[in-house]
Specification:
The complex is a heterodimer of chains A (about 260) and B (about 230). Chain A is mainly alpha-helical. Chain A has 2 domains: about 5-135, no CATH class; about 180-260, no CATH class. Chain A has 10 helices and no strands. In chain A, helix 3 runs antiparallel to helix 4 (about 80-85) and helix 8 crosses helix 9 (about 210-230). The longest helix of chain A is centred in the first third of the chain and has 33 residues, at about 45-75. In chain B, helix 1 (about 1-45) runs antiparallel to helix 2 (about 55-95). Classes of the chains: A mainly alpha (about 260), B mainly alpha (about 230). Chains A and B meet through helix 2, helix 3, helix 4, helix 5 and helix 6 of A and helix 1, helix 2, helix 3, helix 4 and helix 5 of B.
Chain lengths: ~260, ~230
């Protein structure tokens, strides 16, 4: 039995299936519990359903991107581990890099399937798993205290009872009395977008052949701008529910065209 | 008086809901982590091998030195965005920056929920849970159909699309949020772009670059708010 058959054995699929099944069950429980809690505190059912619908649509394209990551990883680590790594705690940007570091740490030249053995596989998988648990460990030990501390600081600025808008309230409807928490959250997200976008500009400026990420981001931004203008017209208000997903789809199509042209 | 009682009830109910999520979240994380760690040992036991302890420690040291500080920063930054339920689920199911955070922010915006409110926490939990379910479903179907899908998803023609999912995501979101608050975005955008151009190492360390970019944006946002020049965001 060669290495790839061993790491793709049905017993490993079964183990991973059980772990992912458990995670899926927990997600379903949290979803149902939160939906019921939303109804219980008087939120509009339409908003809750809209959130589910929108999040589902939003997730499709990035998930296909993650699936491509599973396929890339499975070449050296087999499908079961790759499936588990990117379904539980994993991150697309993290896995290949860490697998490579771990393979080098045990004396291989890198994550090279011709050098791998089941022994190496178990060590690499353990490094990949334990190496990414930091965020989860923080949640287990500090989440309650941390959120309470933050909540205490901004409690006076929040007015929870009056925040649920009607189902048809515009998504970005401005509200009076922004609080520090709200500003910090929006600002942090702007910072997140800035870190990524500036990295694409920097990569392009240093090597013009790295133009695809910047081009894709620019097309997505342009399409989003058009959708933003469109959604201000009552006839096209529905666009705002799909604007991110559609912008991404068009930008990814542009990347295919530009990639094919070179 | 009745309104006050209703308000109290809502908060009592929400506190008990949060306590339940905390308990369940901790159990869920501990069980999942134990199962994932056990996977490596059980997989080894099937073939009579075991992880190499020296290799594991050496690998973990190299990985941990980079990723544990990043994980701490991610926890400090993202937990307030996600709330109780959203945090447990997002840190369990992963793919935070490239999926869960943008998804929760998008849902929050569409629902019009405001930070720190029970509504925001519920929207974020529903959003992260839905997103995790869809991702798990797509990955599971994809793994089952890996043989027929592999040529399509790995094709040279479609490669640029799948390699650029994250740029497409942040291009769309960047525009949306830059329009929302150009005053916050402008200076950090210029500084970070110059940094990425003149210090190329920053480009490949986006997880670290998020920290100065985010801190700059928060600082400018708070300052503008104190000066009364921020407006509504």
């Amino acid at each position: 039995m060669n290495y790839l058959s061993q790491v793709n054995a049905s017993s490993l699929y079964l183990m991973v299936g059980c772990i992912i099944g458990f995670v899926l069950l927990m997600c379903l429980f949290f979803l149902v519990r939160s939906y019921k809690a939303g109804i219980a505190i008087g939120m509009d059912k339409k908003i809750l359903q809209k959130t589910i619908r929108n999040s589902a649509v939003f997730t499709i394209l990035p998930s296909v991107g993650i699936l491509v990551g599973v396929i890339a990883l499975s070449g050296a680590l087999g499908a079961p581990l790759s499936w588990m790594r990117l379904s539980v705690v994993g991150a697309l940007q993290y896995e290949l890099n860490v697998a490579d570091i771990a393979a080098k740490a045990i004396g291989l030249s890198g994550l090279n399937v011709s050098e791998m053995s089941v022994g190496a596989f178990t060590t690499v998988s353990l490094v990949m798993t334990v190496g990414i648990l930091g965020g989860g460990i923080c949640c287990i030990f500090f989440l309650g205290r941390y959120l309470r501390k933050l909540g205490g600081k901004k409690k006076s600025a929040d007015t929870p009872a009056a925040d649920t808008p009607a189902a048809d309230t515009p998504a970005a409807a401005p509200k009076k009395g922004s609080n520090i928490g709200n500003i910090a959250m929006v600002a942090m997200f702007i910072g997140l977008c800035t870190a990524y976008i500036s990295s694409y500009i920097g990569a392009f400026a240093n090597d013009a052949s790295n133009f695809l990420p910047l081009l894709t981001a620019a097309v997505a931004a342009l399409v989003m701008f058009i959708f933003t203008l469109l959604s201000k017209k009552p006839r096209f208000k529905w666009v705002e529910n799909f604007d991110v997903a559609l912008s991404m789809l068009i930008a990814m199509a542009a990347a295919v065209i530009a990639g094919g042209a070179i | 008086m009745r309104e006050e009682e209703k308000h109290m009830d809502k908060h009592e109910y929400f506190s008990s809901y949060n306590r339940q999520l905390h308990l369940l979240g901790k159990i869920m994380l501990c069980v999942s982590f134990a199962a994932m760690i056990a996977f490596s040992f059980v997989a080894g036991a099937i073939y009579d091998v075991a992880p190499d302890l020296g290799g594991f420690l050496s690998g973990l040291l190299q990985v941990g030195i980079i990723y544990y500080p990043v994980a701490l920063v991610e926890f400090l930054v993202y937990a307030p965005m996600l709330g109780v339920g959203g945090s447990y689920l997002a840190f369990l199911t992963g793919n935070l920056t490239n999926l869960k955070i943008p998804c929760a922010m998008n849902a929050r915006e569409i629902a019009g929920a405001k930070t720190g409110t029970p509504e925001n926490e519920i929207i974020s939990t529903i959003s992260v849970a839905t997103s995790a379910i869809i991702t798990t479903a797509i990955l599971s179907v994809g793994v089952m159909l890996m043989t027929p899908l592999q040529p399509l998803l790995s094709s040279e023609v479609l490669k640029p699309a799948f390699e650029n999912v994250v740029p497409a995501l942040f291009g769309a979101f960047g525009l949306k949020y830059y329009l929302k608050s150009p005053k916050i975005a402008l200076a950090p955008f210029v500084v970070m772009t110059l940094l990425c151009i003149f210090v190329p190492a920053v480009q490949s360390n986006t997880s670290i670059a998020i920290i100065p970019a985010g801190l700059m944006c928060i600082g400018i946002g708070v300052l503008l708010d104190k000066m009364g020049k921020l407006g509504d965001i």
